[in-house]
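Appendix B. Extra example for self-study. Work through it before the problem class; the solution is given directly after the inputs so you can check yourself.
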Amino acid sequence: MMKTFAELNFPGRLIAVEGLDGSGKSTQIYLLKRWLEAEGIKVYFSEWNSSELVKSATSKGKKRELLTPTTFSLIHATDFADRYERHLLPLLRAGYVVLCDRYIFTAFARDVTRGCPPDWVRGIYNFAALPDSVFFFKADLEVSLNRILEGRPKLKFFEAGMDLRLSADPYESFRIFQGRILEQYLAMAGEFKFIVIDANQNVEKQQSFVRKVVGERINLARFRRRRPLPLPPPLPPDSKVKDTEEDLAA
Amino acid sequence: MKKPMTHAEGARKGRHYYGHGIPRFPLEDLVGKLIVVEGADGSGRSSQIARLVDWLETCGHATVQVGLKHSTLVSSELAKAQEGNILSRTTLSLFYATDFADQLENMILPALKAGFIVLSDRYIYTLMARDMVRGMDEAWLKNLYGIALEPDAVFYLSVEPQELVQRNLAKNAALDYWESGMDLGLSRDMFDSFLKYQTAMQAAFRQLRKNYGFTVVDGNRPVGSITKELRKKIRALLVEK
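Solution. Structure tokens for the complete assembly:
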């Protein structure tokens, strides 16, 4: 069974948010980040599908509609692995609170909805440790759909799940696709101990709950930035050494 | 998951995916033949493939050639990432798997469906061996490559590392960074690193052979006699039907 970062004795902690597009999870994790920063906590934020290296391949694949369920899954796993190995792991070793807007559960839900076998997807991601807390923002399907569809945005091909040929109408396809993803999320909520948040409530109410839970679960004092160290002596003018962040030296 | 089978030399009975495969390509549709040539740089893979293509086409077979890092999807990004040597091992492994999957679905399987003979310059075994040498878990790799089709024949051109070093230097007057396993820090001396790395790769191939039985071809011999042996084995495969 996979373990959390705390169980693996990492000094850092990882908090993830999951939920459908339009569930408000990104707003909530942003507000959580603002709070932790104001508290002087060493915090880092990482977003799904954002590795610079993999990005050009992913966007090419999406634009030209080259992706199949298999390559869609693998390219997102590559993106995740890059962020995991180059950012998340070292930061967690250095005692950061890492906030992830989507984590492996997004892949579990989406890839399985696209028809990839659950065991295969989970096997691929088993190099990753589990978050110490996962907040799942559960809004009524209609509420999430309306938030996204209200402005009649131009839905992207894969975003709408058009590759699944659920409907020729992108909006209808999006509805069916999101409904299936929600089912997948709910099916794993117990197994991965999701902290389920009623995302139909107002923003403030949700945020104060999130902050309360984080405050209870994490001894924030342990994650405070140290006071700035005294300035080092000036470097000789020809030196190529760059300033290092004072708290990484801690 | 299906238990991998071990095989008689060259020819195989029945099609299999190693795991769940690519469901939109049912096995019974894949009427062509998939022939894989494996081996290190300098083992003579490309020369043999060129000769086989020539021979097969003369005999009236339609062929398609595939190789690693040739996908439309990620090949250029992969090359760029490799140049800078900035990817960690899991990332690089998954990037290669993406490249492989893209070619499997868009080249290999459609060609087999159309009755082509597909000649693959390396296959999942090289990818797995490289990762195993870098400490990745074999079970993880086995799951990852459960998408792959079991080839009709896999020929592994086995050449002694000492001979490989000579061939690579004779051809390029230099050793390749990755084929020398320089990212592993085995030795700062490229010559030493190459020998150590290629020895480790051969051990990984021996390990893989237990589960993915392939035909070992002595690649230390002259090009012509290797071609002769390959032709003989492939001919047997083609008449079998």
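Self-check: Helices of chain A lie at 25-38, 52-63, 69-93, 104-113, 118-124, 141-149, 170-188, 203-217. If your reasoning did not lead you there, revisit section 3.
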